[in-house]
Amino acid sequence: MMPTRDAANLPYKLPPPLFDARCRACWFTLALLVLVIASFVSLDLDWTSFASLEAGRSMYRFMAEFFPPDISPKFVSKVVSAAWETLAMSALGTIMAAVLGLALAVPASRMSKQDAAWLRSPTRWLLNALRAIPELVWAALLLISAGLGPMAGTLALALHTSGVLGRLFAEAMENIPTGPGDAGPGDALRTQGVGPLRVFAYATLPQVLPQLMSYTLYRWENNIRAAAVLGVVGAGGLGQMLSFNMGLFLMNKTATILGAMLLMVACVDVLSFALRRWLNR
Amino acid sequence: MSATQLPQAQLASGGKLRDPDFSSRVFWLVLAILLLWPLGVATEFRPWVLWEPDNRKVTLDFLASFWPLVYDAEFMHMVARETWRTVAMATAGVTLALVLAVPMCLMATRVLSLSALSGRMNRWPAVMRWFVRATLIVLRSIPELVWALVFVRVVGLGPTAGVLAIALTYGGMLGKVYAEILESGESHATHTLMRNGSGRLQAFVYALLPSHAAELASYTVYRWECAIRSSVVLGFVGAGGLGQQLDNSMKMFNGGEVATLLLVFIALVALADHVSAWLRRALS
After folding, report:
1. Less Cβ crowding at N or C end of chain B, within 10 Å?
2. What fold, for B73-283?
3. CB A92 to CB B39 under 8 A?
């Protein structure tokens, strides 16, 4: 991103100076270096305890305790039911988020040029706030009112995802592809005097529905991964089992749960990859 | 389903419009509710529990204690320190992730294979590439929170566990996506250099990197933004930063502190969002 300067007569082919006060990329690189160095210096990272032989030995001991994983039928059936709980949490959370997101996306989008959209900025603020707080923080907050268990996790997923989906939905609705002459089905209905609710139901929604579905499916994929770890704060599913067994130092059981988690994430990855390939054929 | 198909007379007379799709809509709605039922059972989804008098009182008390916010000098000093620690953890983690990701993506990229220039890649390089790629995928698919739980046990509470957790997960993510980005583009210049006898590293630096630099940098910036978000979460398992303070305040039911920390956190995420969007615009 060097600004090019044309001299009247090219004197020599000198390499460009390494630093130039007018070069934005130089300043940026400098700032980046300062940020990185300041981060490492200020964090008082504990390299010695990590890189030492002692740490290596404790890491080895820790890993060795994982083996053999507990695969007694009784425990495996418990893990399977926890995995189902995780899957159900993610599915229900995503569905609720899609409904809530749609409800919030309507006031957050300007449907037509005449639409004053008074609620647009406040709703967008709300969506941003919902989105900015991660699922895990929502779960920790919701534990206070919903108690330990998968319901807090489901609600947490629903709240965070509704922020994400609401914003995406609102953008999809504002960017509706219109027909030639910059007037789509929505405008046609509006000029006939049809009320906003019915314009939404019969023109806007059918137009954007495929896009909304694909966003929702994509978020579901993310949420399965998120739901697996959400339980670490006590919000149900595999994560809760993981933190419970790890807290009691039952490493063999922990290994089984970790394996189940990895298997689930891998299955989701493979399925979504196959699905996307099939859709894009 | 455009308006022109509706009979004009019916619209004008204000006659009752009938939904032609009514019965099918009702059918799908009922089916959806029937399918949702087992999900609700599995997640013990009983929203009315929230409204039981005991729970309601606890919730309302907690929410009421959000106001007034706590912003005395000592607390704000602590918040500023922890905010910086959160950013620093994300930055240090992403830097270490780069140390891991860059060599591995160079090893995994198929474009930089000499034997693949003429026909099929040799067997051992192919096996090595497959192995590196599998390692990256495994690193990526273990969530950073699980890494953090493991490292907290090994190196103790504190930012080291968080930085290492971010480094491993994000190393996997960055390495995999870098390799994909490098393989997605035009490889003509790279192959020309390698055919004419330049080394693979030279071909990378002079041909492959310049044509993909913007995309790589923009993805890295995006991941840094994500790392800030996840370093807050890592605080919940004891890796320091804003998350740990939030956890402490929540456990003590100190609503004022929770509210302040949440607001600071939202502001931090919004700031990172804007910085990252600005940088990515400047890069493209």
Report:
1. C
2. MetI-like fold (1.10.3720)
3. yes
